[in-house]
Input
Amino acid sequence: MSRFYTVFERMLENICEAFENHFERQGDWHEKLLARLSLDLPGLRPAFFPEHMLADVWEIKRFRHLIRHAYDLVLREDRLRELVAIVERIDAAMLEWCANFSRAVRREQKW
Output
């Protein structure tokens, strides 16, 4: 799951850098990254995340943060199954998100 999120996060950073010309990795940048890409910025870029999937994206971000910073943690099997299901939903939707984002950019930029 960590590798999935790292690749996913880098893709999101690339979108910010391409459309907004910068992305600073300081402070609470993980939260800012997700928040920025959930916004529709007319004239600049559409939102990347569909609104109905934001809760799933935030849930995976929170879990990654917990795992990276926990020292003594017992993981419940039922919770892990729930998180795997979330990652599978995001993974299954990713190509559609990319295609929708690309279409919206082309339409907005009149390409």
User: Anything to note?
Assistant: The CA atoms of residues 53 and 90 lie 8 Å apart. The helical segments are 2-20, 29-37, 54-69, 77-109. The chain has one domain: 2-109. The two ends are 36 Å apart (CA to CA).
